[in-house]
Specification:
The structure is a homooctamer of 172-residue chains. The first copy, chain A, has one domain: Rossmann fold, CATH 3.40.50.1970. In chain A, strands 2-1-3-4-5 form a five-stranded parallel beta sheet. Chain A is an alpha/beta fold. The mean pLDDT of chain A is 95. Chains A and B meet through strand 5, helix 5 and helix 6 of A and strand 5, helix 5 and helix 6 of B.
Chain lengths: 172, 172, 172, 172, 172, 172, 172, 172
């Protein structure tokens, strides 16, 4: 089934990160982008992670999304091993609330970029959208479905407006 | 000359940001990616900025790179107006050293991602590389030149090693 | 009914911000300032937001209050589109506790101010008072009711003193 | 000469703050808003500061702009003594780069708002513009000159674009 | 009863601060230092606060302890009005976790010190001990009772050691 | 029983730190490194703490692990008194979430290092592993058991992958 | 000469801190408080520091002022060894600008307070004033000279006002 | 010459880090610990870095010291590949002053510790001392020389005291 061959690899450093990265999965499902989910640790199991990164491109993966907390080296580790674009999702799993993972991803040294998004669930959803934007450049189907997704999002603002109106009425 | 039709738009909020964004220009030139440079302000001249963003896709631009300092709304502003992927370069032009611009880009709300890179020159160079990685997905020429760029970068590490060895010798 | 024509527009980026902005509504109701509540997103539905901002002045709005979380571009977005004074209420809706939204509002670049108040409910209440202070400059009725509001506030300090005295007695 | 009776009071905690607040003076001069400059310290000379604040309204002042560094209590001090709107300019005069003065102004408790702008010169200029926006609500002359100021600012973006083009040419 | 004439004034900006400042009260009671508790707001009721500060010295108060959250101006306000030493207790009552109140107290400008202690309950207890240390310089009774308090504290460390030993045993 | 003579001393400033430091105990037990647990306060009972540090080396302790919160002086205090390597575990027991204890440990002045690990439970576990790495340099048994521990850790990543697969299946 | 017997001990962790602590010396000289200056390191020479702290009280010292940078343990170290009040001056001698030393002093655990003042020179001057306020409680001469010092400070605000007026004139 | 076979590997991510890491070299030279200096990048040349880490133990290296700036993944990368203890030196080479590199090292996830020291030169010197402390556990010669180094350090405090005394005299 060629259409379900994964285009995006979602990589998490720990299975406890799944709760946040479900937002990424949901967005990719909504836009109809086939993906795979992988647990891989730059620090605790670097060999597996390296093999995964090294093979991703030839297996047809176009974008990697990596979520991690604390000294979140995972996306940078993948970025050092593959020319594919890497999106980093900082996860707030330490007492420092994700400032540590945000800086560990965004502040990558010259030469090896990580496309960093927001800490936590907002960022996880946005990672999916960003992957879709990148794929849409060479995939008219994704482009079309992304446009629909964006329209639905604008419509959601109006629904929010209705919810606010309803709540304000209730109080009176 | 169709090959020089710009693929990447580099947008800056103020001409004082050019010093940092020269790093982006240099990388894109090195990898051979045609680009254009634009001054546009989300806050001070929103109409021009909107027109630029709205027309970018149909003019052949594939990726937008926006640098700004302080409450750095520019990349998010562009992201709200075009489905193209947007890369944000936080610039340290206020006394808060770029923490303000980093958070103003990375912490984008759910729905409108900005691919945020490091504060300042490291980030500016990485924005160029990230754009190349994205374009390489559908452009074999860029893919090849990006691979060469990455090889040169690894070689640069060895040159750094030689410089260190030379300096340590001198001291003895 | 000319007296209820709204003078203040309260704009929120998401309906989940209503919980915080109810404090603004309460203050404006207390001081008797007619207002309207709008859901508008600079990022997800920029066209609606722009139309709202562009028409606000001629519809009689004198002050806009905008609450948002994360990379909180909404007040700056409105400020770029209308000469009306804009008050920004940073909302702590991300794991970074509102430091992100505070910096995204306060650190506006030269040329386009946002009058930023405190993160969360304190700030939401203060946004209402600040709007009243601005309106009071040209509206004797508001000025009078604001003076009464301030007197009540000072009296509230004395009631707090009584509550403390009562609690300390209980413990003995 | 009634037109030069000051409408805005610029208050600074120390004469060393003048360097930053010159930006405020320049903006008010540009827009043609009469103003006065005062040195007053909430901490070191509270009686003078109180007298100034208490008399400001009846002397015709409509907006107070206060700049201070460190634990920057000055704008909040003024706000507790007058119903006029107070704009706070955080100044980066301590080793903490102005984060201290920003938080000391923005985080005002419920009841006594300070309209806080950016740290340093950007904020000082914006304080002048915000004061103009407030005065413009009841002064058609200011409204007109503010509109011209905003147009000039948008034009300045285009001049910045020309400077960038010139600089890029030079390098080739 | 002259011995119960208060030596320390505990001032809080809001009755919600009592929960934290109970730690101060408990320490002063333990060491046997007569004190009074006052609700006073630098911002919402400055006249009362000023009267309290101005009369404190002649009423026999030797040290003032002021707790407040957010832009915590209260201790600095008192310090500007009386030569008595002022101890500031930053309270974490905003989403910024007390970093705002810590900086608003510690970063007082040259000329008007606030003796700042830790954010929250640790600081509230330490404010009481610091007041005792100051009073002990001229009061042999306080000096003696403070010495006993410090001994009890050291003994408490040994009790903690026993609790740890007991808990570790339980697990085996 | 010579094999159970403790090699590592785990020192905590307060018995409330035990909850975090249990992670250290667990790791040392897993790798089979004999250890002792001590409550000692640099601030509240400095004499006991000094005696403990001074005697540690001759009693056969090779590494000290010290956990503390706030202005976490304990590891640095021990480091000033013994040539043994000191590992510091910052504990998030104040409203500032452990940033205070992290800086109080890591930023030790030139001359007296503290090997600082992550805030909270991650760091507590890592302190145990770091102690094992140090001991393994001269203890073949520890080296072997540490290697097994690391293998188990890599295997755990694969188990996490299975848990993720199971959870994703459930949702479908 | 009994009047010159030092009442205040100024302790610094390194001779490079003298530049900042000269502000303390200057204030104490101005108010006429005899003092001594000591270099003592909690970390690098703890025995000397302990002896100094232990003997301070019986040698007539009433207040200790300790300045240090980084993980600034010195004031807390002294506080653990003497019942005298300790004032801590955070010094910005690391790349983290003094946030590290501020937190290492202010966040002292329950039981052992450090009266923390501002980072750097402002704080150094304020440490001297705070010491004077404490001594003034039992020394009428200091009280009188402190009152004069405060008056001079208020007068200095007026001189600042004149300097500002002069500078503004010059520009016209 | 077997005694000069390196025991410590000093690894830097870029030759620009040498300026800071010279402090490490100086300390190791002073204590007489043979070492080697390596430029290796986890991100730009991961294969070389991996080979270096994998061979370090069998080549006789006992401790690795890694310095890096920004998203400083280098020490964690090495830690994932060798059981040797890794010391991380955060370097302040970005506009964020080293807070980014400190968090990227200290906040390592459970399982893979990095012994983190202070940002910049203080930390670089301390990394050398910490390595000496670790080696001293099984090397009597290092233990002896380390003791001498610590004594010299304490003596240096007294020299600082003399320098302060001399400077204070000069001013009189």
């Amino acid at each position: 089934m060629p259409t379900t061959r994964p285009k995006v690899g979602i990589v998490m450093g720990s299975d406890s990160d799944l709760e946040v990265l479900r937002e990424t999965i949901k967005v990719l499902d909504d836009i109809g982008i086939p993906h795979e989910v992988v647990v891989a640790s730059a620090h605790r199991a670097p060999d597996q992670a390296r093999k995964y990164a090294a093979s991703a491109e030839r297996r047809g993966i176009r974008v990697l999304i990596a979520g991690a907390g604390g000294a979140a080296a995972l996306p940078g580790f993948l970025a050092s091993l593959t020319p594919l674009p890497i999106i980093g999702v900082p996860i707030n799993s330490t007492p420092l609330n994700g400032l540590d993972s945000l800086l560990s991803m965004a502040q990558m040294p010259k030469g090896v970029p990580v496309a960093t998004v927001a800490v936590g669930k907002w960022g996880a959803a946005n990672a999916g959208i960003l992957a879709a934007q990148i794929l849409a450049l060479s995939d008219a189907g994704v482009r079309k479905r992304l446009a629909a997704f964006r329209k639905a999002m604008a419509a959601e603002v109006q629904q929010g407006a209705r919810r606010v109106a309803a709540q304000l009425k209730k109080r009176q």
